[in-house]
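idk why but the lab printer keeps eating my pages so im just putting this in chat instead. protein + zinc ion:
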Amino acid sequence: MVKNLIFCFFISVISIIIFCSLKLYTVNNANVNYSTFLSEVNKNKIIKTHINGKKIEVTKKDMTQYITYSPFYDFNLLNVLLEKKIIIIGDVPELKNIFISTFMSWIPNFLSMIVWFFFMKLIQISNEEGTLFFSKNKAKMLHKNKVNTTFLDVAGCKEAKEDVSEIVEYLKEPQRFQKLGGKIPKGILMVGPPGTGKTLLAKAIAGEAHVPFFTISGSDFVEMFVGVGAARVRNMFENARKYAPCIIFIDEIDAVGRERGTSVGSSHDEREQTLNQILVEMDGFEVNAGIILIAATNRPDVLDPALLRPGRFDRQVVVPLPDLIGREEILKIHMRKVSVANDVVPIIIARGTPGFSGADLANLVNEAALLAARYNKISITMLDFEKSKDKIIMGSERRSIIMNEHQKEFIAYHESGHAIVGRLMPGHDPVHKVTIIPRGQSLGITLFLPTNDIFSINRQKLESQIATLYAGRLAEEIIYGSDKVSTGSFNDIKIATNLARKMVTQWGFSDKLGPLLYTDVGKTVILGKSRRPVQYFSDKTIQIIDEEIKLMVDINYQRAKKILNENIDILHAMKDALIKYETINLLQIDDLMSRKPVREPEGWNLR
Ligand code: ADP
Ligand code: ZN
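predcted complex ->
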């Protein structure tokens, strides 16, 4: 900041000097041209001239004065003036003039030297601290007193917290570890999906250990100009050395750390240089120098192996999506900061939010707070949480879309199809809610939520998912006939086909092809101008793959069709319930499935 001010100050001083020197040159502009002067001489209008080389100061008979310049040294002029009896005055030859004019002629050079000097100084400064030119996204440093995140702010990743707690001990008392000759890792790689709290955890380490925290994102290193990224890495480490013990946190390390030689385009050299610089710097500091590098990624598989070698990022800490209890704890942490009503039970919210990351849960609390504020409530109620959850999972309601009765019925049949088959297929996640209120991109939604946290999915469940996905379209077909089937199932078809493809080519669920890897979406090759997943199969196999995918879809399509035909009475009843209530919940779906009268949802009378 101060440097920027000094910079502005010098720029203005320099412009003032330039302006003034221009003025020096222009102030004595001739205001009368030479021919007018000659004609006035001839007309006897002049009494006095003061000649200095080509410059002539003229005094007229009416005592007005002006300056004119002769285009060349006009020696003849003297005779003319003498003839007209005009007084001629010359100047005392002065040494000073020469000095001044020499000085004047040097001013531009002088100025450019000054400008050059400051420019160089600036580059030097920006290299040292990176604050002026390429500044905006350079490593941010949080001073040790400013990091007020602690382990209490992080929940849902107990193992990860335990993994890093020894780092805290070390940063607090490096001497104790050094004395024992213990080796603390230089680099820790935090692996996990976005929003699980990797940044938060790294910050908490700094907060707990009371050390400065440097943070930069991998994408900040990837610059247009070759060398900038590497220079930034250098600066960052130089800075960190001054403040050791400290933590350097590199978010999205995969932006720079991708395996070398796999990228295309112009940013490629720059990226490699940056990566090399990181490696050099990491090797450059002693094991116990007190600098700990923490990098975060959700794609450890694409990282350059050199980064993962011993002495570099050789320690991995997995930060997974939180489980049920984890989600409850995270919700509690974020609820501490807002005013929550008595009816709110965090564990119930946690149960309804499988797959949510810590960041999603923080967002949920925030959305609920906004919603409560919109209705001027004094605290956030369970209903606010429920509504915000639906909004995050399914998108906002779009009640502005007006549908006529026939369209509503069409959507109701489609969604009921999904719900019924989802209920009756083995191993499928339970139906949580069905709605025909348009939300986000879709006109109706059937929401399935897993009861437990999913760690891996089995073949039965996948096949059930495919059947359920086609059930919407099948309901349309069964009720209205095959020529009335709509394009509304595009997304269902897409998801189902992709599932079937993965089952066949990656997860080994095709009996004919066996458990072999045929494509690898994580690895890509460049074909012509585009990138494709790596494919490991011959031309002969490609046909079998297609057939097996088709078979996988066909079998489950038929299973869904059978279920719907056998339960067509439930299909009609669910459609009626949806038209009446627009959204039906778990308990109502239970009633429908057991062919009982549908109960009214809670609060239905209050509407
Ligand atoms: P990541 O770095 O893994 O992408 P962040 O650490 O940036 O995720 O998380 C973003 C925000 O989400 C955090 O500032 C915090 O408010 C919230 N959050 C994420 N994970 C957790 C967690 N495990 N415990 C508490 N809050 C979390
Ligand atoms: Zn559908």
